[in-house]
Amino acid sequence: MEDARGLLKQYFGFDDFREGQKPLIDAVLDGRDVLGIMPTGAGKSLCFQIPALMMPGITLVVSPLISLMKDQVGALNQAGIHAAFLNSSLSMGQYRKALDLAREGRYKIIYVAPERLETEGFLRFALSPGVDISFLAVDEAHCVSQWGQDFRPSYLKILSFLEKLPRRPVLGAYTATATVEVKEDVLDILNLRDPLVVTTGFDRANLFFGVKKPRDKYRELESYLREKEEKMPGSSGIVYCLSRKSVEEVCYQLREAGFSVTRYHAGLSDTERRENQDDFIYDRRQIMVATNAFGMGIDKPDVRFVIHYNMPKNMESYYQEAGRAGRDGEPAECILYFGAADQRTNRFLIEHGEDNQELDEETRRIVMEKDLGRLKQMTFYCATSGCLRHYILDYFGEESSAECRNCSNCLEEFDLLDVTEQAEAVVRCIEGCQRSFGVNLIVDVLRGADNQKIRQRGLEENPEYKALPDMTVPRLKQLINEMMMQGFLNLSNDDYPVIELTDRSEELLSGEKLVIKVPKREEKQAPKARKKKAGAASALEEKDMGLFEELRKLRMEIAKEEKIPPYMVFSDKTL
Ligand code: ADP
Ligand code: MG
Description:
The chain is an alpha/beta fold. The protein has helices at about 5-10, 20-30, 45-55, 65-80, 90-105, 120-125, 155-165, 180-190, 215-230, 245-255, 270-280, 315-320, 340-350, 360-385, 390-395, 410, 420-430, 440-445, 450-455, 475-485, 505-510, 520-530, 535-560, and strands at about 35, 60, 85, 110, 135-140, 170-175, 195-200, 205-210, 235-240, 260-265, 285-290, 305-310, 330-335, 415-420, 490, 500, 515-520. Strand 5, helix 7 and strand 6 form a beta-alpha-beta unit. The model is unreliable at about 525-545 and about 565-575 (pLDDT under 50). It catalyses: Couples ATP hydrolysis with the unwinding of duplex DNA by translocating in the 3'-5' direction. Its EC number is 5.6.2.4.
């Protein structure tokens, strides 16, 4: 009788299990349901593939993406394991043939798209006499949850499919999403019975995390890549951009500058995508510039850096994408370039994107609110002066006491600045306004700017007008951000977000302290920054307001160029 470790060596060539794998495998073999929550790259596939080899009957693996199924089945076949996939990439004839072979018991593991489960042909197979389904593994199980980043209504069919089977198989669910809501949803919706829940650490100690706010992102990127090339020639990395258009631009510029680059986005043909992907994986090209369409299911262990040219829409996406760096355990860098437009663009995508079309209006509204909330958390990651690693682990609900010393904020030397008095002024200033305003206008009032916007609204009458004339715009914004992060203020979810007081605002007026971290190097530059006129903040606001219009134009332009309807431009399918 083969044991799990023997199979690990024989088929996969590994000597030892990684954290979490053994208990998850053993539980399934004992007939117990499981939920495995492990970060990307931790090795979830083996947790269902190894028991699949040891169970008496067939294992079904539900998986959301055709490319994932193809890659995994390909790898299994190469390892000498009989596996197949059933999805819409097969012709009718191929599909029938595969089902016939499956019925004859030719496959130990069958990957199936969730929408296939309840089709007549598949049900007929699953209910045939002699077909014994011993184990059903749900990969990327967060897809059952509307709180997850990629909800798939077809995942909801899993339960009713199970109910049709003569004997309920053991059920395993696997995901990298660890938020409480998603976890509860997976347990409830899949109706796991007394499951063993294993959550492994989300910390990836070999990854360096950094946030930069470059004036010129492209310049920053180019100089980063030059430095990398000097220090570690030949290292591979991914540059993630938010749109196809910027992928094209960045890739073109880097190529012109002499770098070994390729690109990936949903606008390329299947063949070109496959070629470019292989060029990157097999080190024929060093740098991959891509949208978030690139990466799921791709296993390149020696990615040395992942640069985000734009801020993604939430921490789940960020950690998943950044987590593609350093899978081999060697040091690697994950750096995010944050720009003022990033938040606006993401808001636009959340509010006007064509996601969640299949949901009813009420649900769609709830999902959108949730998405905006997550965008806020993502923005705080870019704004925080605290430890980035701790921020990530906190977000995923993990206790983090270990020292980091490996993120841009921990390496930065800070002075601590007590800003309690200034924070009080902010609260009183907001109290003193007749209605709610955005960040920039509040900043203008506090600094005592003398412009039309202020006068039109009579804001020079605010008791806190010119209360903080010496604070620079960035420092005041940092203060307001910090107050939002700590819940002393709230930013509304409107098209033009305004600052609101919260239940906690009063606490600041009654003795609560507020301290912010100020980078030492920045202090040295401060006198220069102070020379700027107080009008700068409103200029920025006007720019922000123009962005909505800009995006609309951009959308029309891209639509025309790519000959697709405008509503497709910013949908996930085209990004
Ligand atoms: P996940 O689905 O959790 O993102 P995968 O199952 O795709 O991760 O595995 C990621 C990588 O880790 C793969 O290259 C896999 O071969 C490797 N791996 C998995 N388990 C082990 C192990 N016990 N020892 C060494 N490598 C492993
Ligand atoms: Mg996986």
